[in-house]
Write a structure and sequence with these properties.
With 136 residues, the chain is mainly beta. Helices cover 8% and strands 41% of the residues. The chain has one helix and seven strands. Strands 1-7-4-5 form a four-stranded mixed β-sheet, with no helix packed on it. Strands 2-3-6 form a three-stranded antiparallel β-sheet, with no helix packed on it. The chain is globular, with a radius of gyration of 15 Å.
Length: 136
């Protein structure tokens, strides 16, 4: 197999696939943060700078019995790493089949990000378990 194809295949199987990002969104880095036993897969930006859409999959790991409390935080960060905007994203189906099931234990998510703030240079996609504390 040619080296380029090996790199392309490896990148496609990882959590964030920035090589698929449209050219006008290439300046925005997508960083994925997995939960301890659940993983973000094939996460990428689509659309345009005026209408970016984040899409991807969630994969259940071995020994993770209940995925209904998992959710995704999508944080737009500026160059200093400060959150400019944050959104909670759900995935479907909520309860993932066990690994090895014909659906491969994966769910899908889509998040319409709206126009990106000019200061946003990174999108942090964080999969985690639990609730958010209410803001005061």
């Amino acid at each position: 197999m040619k080296p380029f194809l090996v790199v392309l295949l490896a990148a496609a199987l990882t959590g964030c696939a920035s090589f698929l990002t449209p050219p006008d969104l290439a300046h925005v880095k997508v960083e994925c943060v997995d939960a301890p036993r659940a993983f973000l897969r094939q996460t990428r930006l689509q659309g345009s700078v005026d209408h970016p859409v984040l899409v991807g999959q969630v994969e259940r790991g071995l020994g993770y019995p209940d995925t209904t409390r998992l959710h995704i935080d999508v944080n737009l960060l500026d160059t200093a790493g400060q959150i400019v905007r944050s959104t909670v994203v759900e995935f479907s189906p909520r309860q993932l089949p066990r690994p090895g099931h014909p659906s491969r234990g994966r769910a899908h998510f889509t998040s319409d990000l709206g126009a990106l703030p000019p200061s946003a240079t990174e999108i942090e996609v964080r999969l985690h378990d639990g609730e958010h504390m209410p803001s005061s």
